[in-house]
Amino acid sequence: MPEKVDLALELIKKDIDKLAESADAEIVAKVKANLLKDADVNAKKNGHWAGIISEYSMFGFDGQTEYKKIVEAVTPEKISAFLKNAILANGSKLDVVMRPE
Predict the structure, then answer these.
(1) What does the alpha-carbon distance between residue 16 and residue 12 come to, in Å, rounded to a whole number?
(2) Within the chain, which residues score under 70 in pLDDT?
(3) Phi/psi of residue 11, each to 5°?
């Protein structure tokens, strides 16, 4: 609904600002648990490994070796600090709205 764009942008900004102040520890724990579970499931699939090999050969990025340690190290405080210090810090903002023709 194109007429709801302004409302949606306002709500998104409000939630990002709220998350920059404090992330819900329970939600972060659930997301981390899902990511870790999915990592185990995906590690059994050829497509996963094809993607890992492709990223490594094209970009030198190893998205497998330390993945679980990185996910486990995420905390609500780190999420808020990242949003506050990296995403919102310089005040730059870009809204991209795709509208159907």
Answers:
(1) 6
(2) none
(3) -65, -40
